[in-house]
Amino acid sequence: MRSTRSTIAALSACAVLAGCSSAPVDSVPVVRIKEAAKPSFSRPLNQVLPTGDELTTTLGVGPGFSGQLVVGGADMLLQGVGESEATPIECVSAGYRLQKVVYAASPVREVASQSWAGGDFNGPPVSAFFGAVKFATADDAQGFFAASADKWRRCNGQTLVLHQPEHGADGVSRITDVVVDSTVVSAVVLHDDGSTVQRAIGMTSDCVVDVEIMDVDRGGGARGAVDVAHLMLQKLGAS
C-alpha cells in the first residue's frame, strides 16, 4: 500500500511539474515563439506622382495634360548636365531637376518621373516636372537629403554657369530664395533667358521627391513647388 501511495505521489508531482520523462532533458524540444513580422506597405513609385486634377488644385491653374510616365532604375535619371559642364558643380542639384550627376553617388533603386503642362486664359501657362527616387535604405535617403540641403544653402545667391559647346547650350542661372526645413528644401532659379523656375526636393522614409515648376515670376518664392513636394510626401505616408 505504501508503495502504491509513493507511485501516486510521484505521478502527481510529474503532472504538476510537467518534467517527468524517460528521455534525457536535452532532447526535450524547445518551442520558440517569434514575433510576427509586421507587414510593410510599399506604394508603387509611379502612384506618388501627382495627378492632373491634383496639380490643378494645388497650383491654382487651369486644367492641363501629363507627359509620358517614366519608371525604371537609376538609368532613368536625366543626363542633361555633365559633371564638367557646370560651375559650381554642387549647385546643379538646386538648378536642375533629377540629374544623374546629382544622384550618381547614392544607391538609387527606382525612379519614376513625369511632366505636366496646364493653364487657361485666366493666367500664363505653367509647366512642371516631378520625380520620385527610391534609395536602398532610409539612411541613404536621409543622407542624400541632408547633403543636398547643405549644398542648396551654400548655393543661395550663387551664379550657376552651364557650358555645353557641343550642344550650343551655354547659360547662366542665379539661385535665390533657398529655404530649408526638416523635410523640404526649396529655391527659385532665375535663368538668363528671363524664365523663372521653382525647385523643391523633399524626403521621407527611403524616398526623395524632386520637383521643378516653370512659370513667370509671380513672387512668393517657390511656394508652388513646395506644395507639390508636400503633396507627394503625403502619398508616401509622411505626416
Folded structure, characterized:
By secondary structure, this protein is of the alpha+beta class. It has one domain: Protein Transport Mog1p, Chain A (3-Layer(aba) Sandwich), CATH 3.40.1000. It is built from six helices and ten strands; from the N terminus they run H-H-E-E-E-H-H-E-E-H-E-E-E-E-E-H. Strands 1, 2, 3, 4, 5, 6, 7, 8, 9 and 10 form a ten-stranded antiparallel beta sheet that branches. The model is unreliable at 1-41 (pLDDT under 50).
Essential attributes:
single chain; 239 residues; alpha+beta; Protein Transport Mog1p, Chain A; 29% strand; globular; disordered N terminus
Number of helices: 6
Unreliable residue runs: 1-41
Number of domains in the coordinates? 1
* Main beta-sheet annotation: 10 strands, antiparallel
Secondary-structure map with pairings?
Elements: H1 2-17, H2 52-59, E1 64-66, E2 70-72, E3 86-87, H3 92-95, H4 100-103, E4 108-118, E5 126-135, H5 138-155, E6 159-162, E7 171-180, E8 184-191, E9 196-204, E10 207-215, H6 223-235
Antiparallel strand pairs: 1-4, 2-4, 3-6, 4-5, 5-10, 6-7, 7-8, 8-9, 9-10
